[in-house]
Amino acid sequence: MRVIDAAEHLGTARSTAHRLLTTLRDNGFASQERLNSAYRLGPAVTEIGLAVIRHMDLRGSARPAMEEVRARTGETVSLSVLEGQHVRFVDSLEGTQLVRVGERTGYVLPASSTAGGKAMLAAMSPKDLESRFPSTALPTLTPSSLARRSDLHRQLEQARLLGYAVNRGESESAVSAVAVAILDSSGLPVGAIAIVFPTSRWEQSAISGWGRVLQNACEAIQRSISS
């Protein structure tokens, strides 16, 4: 958000909006990539979000199911949450295969380039999606990354039909994933579990089976966090 946008939204003078945004920036609630650029959410907001997740004990609730998924697949299993247009990996269990994807706890990636991000976005309303992605262009990381919002909408529709989302070399060319969203009692996504594996092991028949494994895991987690 630019200063002029904040001023119009708040109905204040630009100088007042600038002072408020500067205060937020100084306290970690807003950040700028460079001087005089637009403001974005700062690290303090992330910490609040993670605190809420810890309060819900999402990681603790998800761990047993994640361990079961890893035991059944031998692949790396990750837990992620949404942060604006991005996902943050808040937990990960490294796979047991000789060639495997390393654990990813702490990583932040564009939601449109990850299976977990797309699984959570698919559970949102069109209005929420529009507000989260106002631009038609999306950030890209590899040649396989989705570059347009229309492409994302098509993949989200497919994810809704299948019950799981996929990422085939979209965040890293050599890494792929399949994921299912964890929903709260109102049906809103609070996280996603993904099976993350080398793209060289992509097999559609395995993907479909892993989707069912993840669906069962997420149902178990949802029962745990709602009890």
Name of the CATH first level of the largest domain: Alpha Beta
For the terminal residues, how far apart are their CA atoms?
39 Å
Largest sheet: 6 strands, antiparallel
| 3D shape | globular
Q: Find the count of extended strands (DSSP E, 2+ residues).
A: 8
Number of helices: 8
Task: Work out the helicity level.
Answer: 40-55%
**Low-confidence parts, pLDDT < 50 over ≥5 residues?**
none
Structural class: alpha+beta
Strand content: 15-25%
Q: Strand order of the main beta sheet, please?
A: 5-4-3-8-7-6
Average pLDDT number: 90
Count of spatially separate domains: 2
Rounded to the nearest angstrom, the radius of gyration is 19 Å
CATH topology of the largest domain: Beta-Lactamase
CATH architecture group name of the largest domain:
2-Layer Sandwich
CATH superfamily of the largest domain: GAF domain
Order of helices and strands: HHEEHHEEEHHHEEEH
